[in-house]
Amino acid sequence: MATALMLLAACTSPPIRFHANKDPNRPLVTAALGKPVPDQTTLTLGLHGHPPLLGEQTIAGSKIIFQPAFPLLPGQVYEARLRLPGQPVASTFYTHPAPTSKPPAITRIHPTTSALPANHLKFYLHFSQPMQRGDIFRYFRLSDSNGTDVPEPFRETELWSKDGRRLTLWLHPGRQKTGVNLNLDLGPVLLPGRSYTLEISGQWKSQAGKPLGKDILKNFRTHSADRAKLNPAKWKINATRDAVLIQFDKPLDWALLQTQVAIHLADGRPIAGSFETLREETACQFVPRQPLATGRYEAVIGWELEDLAGNNLQRPFEVDLTKIKHTNRALPARLSFTVD
């Protein structure tokens, strides 16, 4: 049997795998049942959300195999579905890679700062090309300054961007939030005033089968836990006709800064332009598509914007939702400023 390209879903039983084939654009899809294949078992492959592709299904002992009749399209997300009589459908996803001879690389890790609160929640890992999915957490290690592994630090749920090039890696929120079961049983993932290293194994392969080639390290040190909701009144805005710089009082969540900040005219109309984060996510800069006219403007901040510990504009992450008074829909914060 050809070498497996990837194990896509360690949580499915049996696992569905893609295998290299003589035609690299028509990989074999297999599921090894470990027992004779029951009648009426089917294994299909199709574009996610579309009908199955034409192809040939065969059975070899305890294994069921599907080969698509036509080449797969590079960059498209496909769904393999295994139907066993009397069992829930098992499915997994696969992005067919474009031909490449380059190994993958981690291009950025957010947050970029090396000083994190002890109740830090997540990292964003950016890759140069889509990576293999399924059973990925064996490629991660979190250790302290003595080289001792932190046990069970991650929320083992794969959260990928649509293009498959950004992974949100969560430290387990059940351990980072005080008073809940995992926090009481295992303790927090991070302790204040300590040094840690997040290690990503160089053995992890892209969907084209190329490994990273070297271990990637993110070293950081923790300070005291941050349990206060965001306070935009502490922020500063410096505006010219060509750019608006918003300076925060602490680093904020990189991904949410892409969607939760906007610049409006005083009458509420949005201004077209682009944002970029600066200074280790302690600031963001808006560059308008056209120079701003003199006058009054607003920076509109969505209430869902968070800091590194998950505190947002409405409430801190450390709150018992059963004991708070629910109000009407949360509104964004609006910070007025003038362009002279």
Mean pLDDT: 90
Would you give the CATH topology of the largest domain? Immunoglobulin-like
- Beta fraction: 35-45%
Overall body shape: globular
How many helices?
Answer: 3
Contiguous uncertain segments of 5+ residues = 1-12
What does this structure look like?
The chain has 340 residues and is mainly beta. It has 3 domains: 4-95, Immunoglobulin-like; 106-223, Immunoglobulin-like (Sandwich); 232-339, Immunoglobulin-like (Sandwich). 4% of the residues lie in helices and 36% in strands. It contains 3 helices and 22 strands. The strands form 6 sheets. A 5-stranded antiparallel sheet has the order 1-2-3-6-5, with no helix packed on it. A 4-stranded mixed sheet has the order 10-15-14-12, with no helix packed on it. The longest helix is centred in the middle third of the chain and has 6 residues, at 181-186. The termini are far apart. Mean pLDDT is 90; it is low at 1-12.
Keywords for this structure?
340 residues, mainly beta, Immunoglobulin-like, 3 domains, 22 strands
Summarize the structure.
With 340 residues, this protein is mainly beta.
Secondary structure blueprint with pairings:
Elements: E1 4-7, E2 16-19, E3 28-32, E4 42-47, E5 55-60, E6 63-68, E7 77-83, E8 90-95, E9 106-110, E10 115-117, E11 122-127, E12 140-144, E13 166-170, H1 173-176, H2 181-186, E14 195-200, E15 216-223, E16 236-239, E17 244-247, H3 254-257, E18 261-265, E19 273-278, E20 283-288, E21 295-301, E22 333-339
